[in-house]
Amino acid sequence: MSLVSAITLIVTVIIIYYALIKLFSVLFRITGLPKEKAQFQSVSLLTNAGYTTGESEIVVSEKTRRRIATAAMLSGYFFSVVIVSLFINLFLSIDFSQFDAQLVVIFMWFGGMIAFFLILRIPVVEKVLNKTIEGATVRVFKKAARENYISVLDTYGKDAVVDIYLYKVPAFLEGKCIVDSDIRKRFNVNILMYTRNGQNHYVTADTIFSDKDVLIAFGPLASIREAFLLKGHEEKPEEKNAEKEKEINAITIMSNFGNQILADIKLKKVPPVMAEKSLIESKIKDYFSINIMMVSRNEKPITLTKDTVLAKGDRVIAFGPYESIRTVFGHGGEA
Q1: Which of 79, 133, 181, 207 is the 20 to 30 Å CA partner of 48?
Q2: pTM beyond cutoff 0.70
Q3: Contact predicate 296/274, CB 8 Å
C-alpha cells in the first residue's frame, strides 16, 4: 500500500468514526436521553472506554438502548482494529530513505484533517451538520417506524423539551382537539408547535393531530413517554392478560446520581416488604436506603405521613440505590 493510500484510508476512517458518534448520539436522543448524556454514551461505547455502573444503568434499563449500545460496541471494536491496522500499514509504507519528503506529505494530510475538524467546530457549521445527520436519521426512522419516538432537545431537571414523531396518534388524542384531550390535566404536558407535511403550525384549542405529525412538547419526560409511546397503550388482549398475571411493577429511571437513582414506579403489586404496612413499619429506609418522595393515587398526590400505606395502582416517586429499588419494587423484596 502506498503512503498516500494509507493516509487517505486513515483520514476516511476517522471521518466515518466521527459521523458514527453523531449518528449514535441521535439514536440515543430518540430513546429519551438528553443531548449531553447521549453524546457521552456514544463516545464511551464507540471508543470502548467504558464508564461507571451508574451511567451504564441508563442504557441497560431500556431495551432499545441496549440494542443501540450493542451496535455501537460492535462498531467500536471493528473500527479499533481497522485503525490500528491502517497505522501499521502507514508505518510500513514510509520510505525512510526519503523520510523528509514523505514527512511533508504526512503533515499536509493530517494538517488538512485537523483543519477539517476545526471547521466542524464552528457553531454554524456544527449546527448544520447536526441538523443534517439528525434529519437523515429521522427520515429513516419515520419510514421504518412502528412506534412513536421521542428526541430530547433539552432538559430542565425532570422536565424536557422534546420532538415527538407520531407514527400513530395515541388513543387519548385520536380525533380529539387539544382541549378535549385534557393532555395538560392528565399528563402536565404542553404541546408548543407541530409540523405537518413539512409546514410548521402553532397549536390552537381546536388543533387535532394526525399520524406522521411531528410535535414539539414540554413537560416531565416520564409523563411525555407515558402519554405518547404506544407500547402499553395498544397491546393485544392476550398480552394485557399476561402482563396482568405477571403483576410486574413498571420502573422508569428519571435521573441518576452515581449509583443512586430517582425512579418513577407504577405499582401493579405492592412489594411483600410493604404489604399492609405503613412506611415507617416497613422500615424500607432502614433496610434498603430507599426514600419515598411522593405518592399519587387516582392521579392525585397524597400527603405522606409515617402511617401512609401503599396500595395497588399507586404511582411512587422513590430515591435510593438502583439495586435496592429494583430488588424491592422489581422483584418483590422480601424483608
Answers
A1: 133
A2: no
A3: no
Phi, psi angles (nearest 5°) of residue 122: -65, 130
Q: Using alpha carbons only, what angle is made at residue 320 by residues 291 and 60, rounded to the nearest 5 degrees?
A: 145
Ramachandran bin of 298, using left for φ above 0, alpha for ψ from -120 to 50, beta for the remaining angles: left
Residues 143-191 have pLDDT tens digits of: 555 677 777 777 787 888 888 888 888 888 888 888 888 888 889 999 9
Confidence of residue 200 (pLDDT cuts 50, 70, 90): confident
Fold classification of 145-228 is Alpha-Beta Plaits (3.30.70)
In SS3 terms, 148-191 reads as CEEEEEEEECCEEEEEEECCCCCCCCCCCCHHHHCHHHHHCCEE
CA–chain centroid gap for 243, Å, is 24
Q: Which fold has domain 243-330?
A: Alpha-Beta Plaits (3.30.70)
- Compute CA distances 320 → 277, 285, 326, whole Å: 20, 9, 10
**Which residues are bridge partners to 316 per DSSP?**
265, 295
pLDDT digits (tens, 9 = 90+) for 15-66: 888 888 888 887 777 666 777 777 788 888 887 766 655 566 666 656 677 7
145-228 and 243-330 share one fold: yes
- Closest C-alpha to 55, from 329, 320, 290, 255: 255
Length of the chain measured in residues: 335
| Domain range annotation of the chain | 3-135, 145-228, 243-330
Backbone dihedral angles phi then psi of residue 301, each to the nearest 5 degrees: -60, 140
